[in-house]
Amino acid sequence: MPSDVSSRRHDQIVLDLAEARVSAMTGETHAAISLLGRARSAAEGIDMVVLTDELEYEAAGIAAVLGDEREARALLAGLVERHEARGLRRFADRYRRDLEALG
Questions:
Q1: How is the chain split into domains, by residue range?
Q2: Is the per-residue pLDDT at 79 higher than 70?
Q3: Which of 49, 63, 91, 102 is positioned for an S-S bond with 71, CB 3.0–4.6 A?
């Protein structure tokens, strides 16, 4: 069933993102970057805002943990901009708070 395949694909993306975050937090930079890349590759062609936003948000968090604040800021700023454009102010505010927390 196509829905089973897409559900498994989504699950794998979420698992890769979680493992990437843990790898970043434990200093395993190469593993974190590799897992994030795998999640991004798996998400290519998916037109589902919830998933793409989650991917970008997690990528921003991973970048911040790895010390790449410039990348983290760029990703969060993109999320703020896209949500403001859609009129989703509460979501934009959430990402804005994370952006401000970076200093």
A1: 2-101
A2: yes
A3: 63
99, 57 contact by CB (below 8 A): no
Burial class (CB in 10 A: 0-12, 13-18, 19+), 54: middle
Res 1: pLDDT:
42
Q: Is the pLDDT of residue 47 over 90?
A: no
- Integer Cα distance of 91 and 39 in angstroms: 23
> Could you tell me if 54 and 79 are in contact, meaning their C-beta atoms sit under 8 angstroms apart?
no
Residue 88 clears pLDDT 70, i.e. is over it? yes
Answer left, alpha or beta for residue 27, where phi above 0 means left and psi between -120 and 50 means alpha.
Answer: left
Q: How far apart are CA 34 and CA 13, in angstroms?
A: 12
Cα four-point dihedral sign 42, 43, 46, 50: positive
